[in-house]
Amino acid sequence: MSPQTFTIKDWSKDDRPREKLLTKGVAALSNAELLAVILGSGSQDENAVELARRILAQSGNSLDELGRRTVAELKNNKGVGEAKAVGIIAAMELGRRRNSGIITEKKKIANSGDIFMLFQPMLYDLPHEEFWLLFLNNANRMLAMHRLSLGGMSETSVDIRLIMKLCLERFAAGLVLCHNHPSGNRQPGNHDMLVTKKIKEGGKMLDITLVDHVIIAGANYYSFADEGVL
């Protein structure tokens, strides 16, 4: 006798992705659950959430990496046909266009205050550190934003080569660094100073200007440019 299998229909209604979205809001869903809603169904061997988890795992659980997958690559996953693959591609593209629309509406970065206004709503009340990159063109207008690390900075989490690679991929002429201090202390530590110096030196080799590094500390901030330490 084969073991009993359970589909999403056997789950509590509160745990089903679609019902969970309707009752608790879209923010309550994990990435796998959101992807399961897009997939609509699983396969003979897996329900939609299990299939979604496997697809994400094969992309290193990175939505950025998933967004680079082609239809052919997605179809290599057992249980993913052309319709499911096309659905994933379309969803990823909508996300890109939404982010692109937000970026293109932003004004030119003229000073540290502009950087603070951009990042403060995202970072001011987080209980952990996040390190972000802001890519600029020759006119100091925003090209894209990228979260480099979550949970704090370390020499291992700040890979200078990766940062420069991301700059080159976006044809950035300028770069802004931003991270938060959950402690509320806006002053940079020794490691903040060292990382900033290394990134500035790495940018010089590729004619990429480090425009500023801003530390968000609640309602206050510290600007390396304003303090003359760049």
Word description of this protein:
The chain is of the alpha+beta class and 230 residues long. The protein folds into 2 domains: 97 residues, Orthogonal Bundle (DNA polymerase, domain 1), CATH 1.10.150; 112 residues, Cytidine Deaminase, domain 2. Helix content is 42%, strand content 16%. The protein is built from 9 helices and 5 strands; from the N terminus they run H-H-H-H-H-H-H-E-E-H-E-H-E-E. The protein has a 5-stranded mixed sheet with strand order 2-1-3-4-5, with helices on both faces. The longest helix has 24 residues. The N terminus is likely disordered.
Q: How are the strands ordered across the major sheet?
A: 2-1-3-4-5
Radius of gyration: 21 Å
Q: What is the averaged pLDDT score? A: 85
Name of the top-level CATH class of the largest domain: Alpha Beta
Kindly give the count of domains: 2
Q: Classify the fold: give the CATH topology of the largest domain.
A: Cytidine Deaminase, domain 2
**Structural shape:** elongated
Structural class: alpha+beta
